Automatic annotation (TrEMBL):
A GO term from the CC aspect: cytoplasm
GO molecular function, one term: ribosome binding
Family: Belongs to the FKBP-type PPIase family. Tig subfamily.
EC number: 5.2.1.8
InterPro entries: PPIase_dom_sf, PPIase_FKBP_dom, Trig_fac, Trigger_fac_C, Trigger_fac_C_sf, Trigger_fac_ribosome-bd_bac, Trigger_fac_ribosome-bd_sf, Trigger_fact/SurA_dom_sf
Coiled-coil segments: none
Catalytic activity annotation: [protein]-peptidylproline (omega=180) = [protein]-peptidylproline (omega=0)
The protein, known as: Trigger factor
């Protein structure tokens, strides 16, 4: 085997490898001999099949296996001899090889290697971590939201038409372009006017009705409606009002809490306070992590492997295309493709560079992911799918590569926590609204 370095430009390395024809033929013959020891063919005793027959029957497939193995071994040899740190698998291009003429095997190996860099000094890094102090008012508001979802209804105490906040019991039957569609008919449905649970102006058009009234309601399904065949379509609903009721607010007391499975109202508030604290802690850490990554991005500037950028960009671009099709792309929907590609390629470069920085810091500080931590990550994924826990658990159990895919985010979180423990972190009291606000929206404001 003869290995020649032909190019070293930036992070790209190219090599030409030549394996003599005799070496290739020897590997093929050796593998055919192994096959001949066990293969059974009509007219021949086991182990006595002539080499010419073996070559005729198995030569082509064995040659393919030998070439794959030869190129794989050569790639490993190149990495070892030149102390490479490949970013991805090498690109292989066969330059010359002819079976009939028994020529040498000549091919090219093109690598992209990981950049050599030293992580920046983090001694001067300082970030603000927004934190929220949970107040009794916030807990009471949360209890109030729960109570709002547990309203009951009662007959009207006065003779009057339906108003916003009332509940109308209706039968309805809808059509689009004169055609009845599935899911557009209902009977005895209780609808709170002003709740926004029905589309467009449906609820507004029922204000002022009384029991026994009939209304023809004209509405238009929104462009992003989940049923694509109805999105943007005008619809007509024939509605019969069967009864008008008034909403009755739930009384927030110990009995209310017991109805939710708690000992008393104090126990309910304790659980809510803990859950709010957990939610705010998670969001606070995310905001601190973002601030840290922003500073790490500013402190590091080095070339990154374009192959890794291409993979990251392709993933981002696919998600964006899905969002555009679903009408969920926000302000990106108004940008031209060239502008979007440039913007998201810059994001891909940043992500790859930050990933390399975190990886380098993690390796230098001997940060690893234990098996138990991977198991905890699997359980966290399982809990994300209520009602499908068994299916999700079995998926991970039967797909070890899916479990391994969780290693990178767990490793990243451990490295981020390690860095946050090394830099100066100042807690900044904020309101819950400020904590939950998108940082991009803050910058725009």
């Amino acid at each position: 085997m003869n290995i020649t370095e032909t190019s070293t430009e930036g992070l790209r390395r190219e090599y030409t490898v030549v394996i003599p024809a005799a070496d290739v033929a020897g590997r093929v013959d050796a593998q055919l001999k192994e096959i001949g020891k066990t293969v059974r063919m009509p007219g021949f005793r086991p182990g006595k099949v002539p080499m010419s027959v073996l070559k005729q029957r198995y030569g082509q497939s064995v040659m393919g296996e030998v070439l794959d193995k030869a190129m794989s071994d050569s790639a490993a040899k190149v990495v070892e001899q030149h102390s490479l740190r490949p970013a991805l698998q090498p690109k292989v291009e066969i330059v010359k090889f002819e079976v009939e003429s028994a020529s040498d095997l000549e091919f090219k190996l093109a690598y992209e290697v990981l950049p050599e860099f030293e992580p920046a000094d983090l001694g001067g890094v300082a970030i603000e971590k927004p934190v929220v102090e949970i107040t009794d008012e916030q807990v009471d508001e949360a209890v109030g939201r729960i109570a709002a979802g547990r309203k009951t209804s009662a007959p009207l105490t006065e003779d009057r038409p339906a108003a916003k906040g009332d509940i109308v019991v209706i039968d309805f039957d809808g059509s689009v372009d004169g055609e009845k569609r599935p899911g557009m008919k209902g009977e005895g449905h209780e609808l709170e006017l002003g709740s926004g649970s029905f589309i467009d102006t449906f609820e507004e058009q029922l204000e002022g009705t009384r029991a026994g009234d009939h209304r023809t309601v004209n509405v238009t399904f929104p462009e992003g409606y989940h049923a694509a065949e109805l999105a943007g379509k005008a619809a007509v609903f024939e509605v019969d009002v069967k009864e008008v009721k008034q909403a009755v607010e739930a009384t927030i007391d110990d009995e209310f809490a017991k109805g939710l499975g708690f000992d008393d109202l104090a126990a309910l508030k304790t659980v809510i306070r803990d859950r709010l604290g957990g939610d705010y802690t998670v969001m606070s850490r995310l905001r601190a992590k973002r601030a840290l990554l922003d500073q790490l991005a500013e402190l590091h500037s080095f070339e990154v492997p374009q192959g890794m950028v291409d993979i990251e960009f392709d993933q981002i671009w696919k998600r964006l295309q899905d969002e555009l099709k679903a009408g969920d792309a926000g302000e990106d929907a108004g940008k031209d493709e060239e502008e979007l590609r440039k913007e998201y390629r810059d994001i891909a470069v940043r992500r790859v560079r930050l990933g390399l920085v975190l990886s380098e810091i993690g390796q230098k500080n001997n940060i690893t992911v234990a098996r138990e931590e991977l198991n905890q990550a699997v359980l966290a994924e399982v809990r994300r799918y209520p009602g499908q826990e068994r299916e999700v658990f079995d998926f991970f159990k039967n797909n070890p590569q899916a479990v391994e895919s969780l290693r990178a985010p767990v490793f990243e979180d451990k490295v981020v926590d390690f860095i946050l423990g090394q830099v100066k972190v100042t807690e900044k009291p904020v309101s819950a609204e400020e904590l939950m606000q998108d940082p991009d929206e803050e910058e725009a404001a």
